[in-house]
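User: Sequence in, structure out. Go.
Assistant: Echoing your sequence, followed by the structure tokens.
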Amino acid sequence: MNERFTHDEKRLLLALARRALVEGVGGARLQPLDLESLPETLRQHGASFVTLTSQGELRGCVGTLEAYQSLAEDVREHALAAALNDYRFPPVRQEEVAGLEIEVSCLTPPRELEYETTDELPSLLRPGVDGVILYDDLRRATFLPQVWEKLPEPAQFLDHLCAKMGVEANLWRYKKLRILTYQVEEFHEGDYLNSK
């Protein structure tokens, strides 16, 4: 997908995420953002996920699929939530913060994926490109496009996504689920904060 953000805007979002981590994990309340001082693209409503890794291993990932606040505020909120509120991990401790790598994923609006039969579904997904949201009644789960790196086969990807949703892994094979796709622009702290 075409890049929506400049090099400097990405650096700024990563810096906001880092500051939120340092302050929030340290027990301080996040200071209000001065939105007027930010570029227009970061003041607009945007949806993001923030992923934290420690020595290459996942340490937290939290985000939203719907834009409901400025992208800058969204990134700050989800950086702190990834550190403190990802139910899969204990809260990040203050001494861990310096060793965490931050990745920000900015999402495009999700679009309904039209399909006729469950057999054709795997061929409609674009590995490495599409993030996928599955719905089954009131249940919902998503995988960011980065998950394709670990689950490159569409059928396997869907199996794991069903399991994440809390249903049997092969549900998508015999029940027509509601499916939306989206794309992300992702950037990693190590690629931006030390560059000009």
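User: And one key feature?
Assistant: The mean pLDDT is 93.
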